[in-house]
Each structure stands twice: as structure tokens, then as C-alpha cells.
Amino acid sequence: MRFAGIQVKTANIMPGCTFANQDVEIGPGTFVNRECFFEGPLKIGSGCIIGPRVCIVASTHPWAETEGFERVAVPKPVVIEPDCWIGARVTIVAGVRIGRGVTVAAGAVVVRDCEEGMLYAGVPARAVRKAGPSNRSMPADQ
After folding, report:
1. pLDDT at 139
2. Is 82 a catalytic residue?
3. Domain covering 7-130 in this structure, CATH number
């Protein structure tokens, strides 16, 4: 990935991930599970956990009054701050900032910024409660 120009500072990227362009940065200690799709501009901070089949699309097609949707995509950066946990099959759309320590439940669709330290779930994703250690770790016996 580094050879292709992607700024990767972790070795924990599982097979089958797709990078639509080079404008992707992944911080140290971040784990990326299988079959994720990344389109930049995208910055993922350190110590994040990205579940399988997460889709992050950082471009949009704005509405033009005379022609409908523009045919040329416009990039809007996505930022995932450090220590976030993004569950399986989460979709994150263009222009979203996910604050430090956020947990996003599996299957959620993130269309707005996420406040630091919260748990988000649903379609569209909404804050459910404060995220805590119980959201982040398996019990010792599992």
C-alpha cells in the first residue's frame, strides 16, 4: 500500500480491502478488518478498530438547479479521530468527522459529525449514550 502512495502507519490491514484513490491516511496501531472500501480524502487516527466491510466514501455529487445531480464528484474529507471503534458494515459518507473515542454500532450509516466519546447506532446514526469500556472490550472469559 505504501508503494501505491497510501499513507499507512500500521501493518494491521486484512486482505480484500479496496482503496479507491491514494488520498488515504491510516494511523499507527489501527486495525482494519477484511473487505473494507476506502475513498479519500480520508484520515483515520491511531488506535482505531475498523470492522469488516466498512464503507467510507469521501465524495458526493452536489445538486445543480438546472441539471440535477452533478456528474463530477466533489471530494469532502472524512476524519476519524484516534481510538474509535467502527462496527461491521458501517457506512460513513462524505464530510463527516468522527470524534475521539466514538463507537459506531454495526450496520449504522453515519451522515453527520459524531461527538467525542459517544456510542452511535442506527440509520441514520444517532447518539445512544456515552461510550465506555463495556463497549470496547470482551469479558476476560471470552
Report:
1. 40
2. no
3. 2.160.10.10
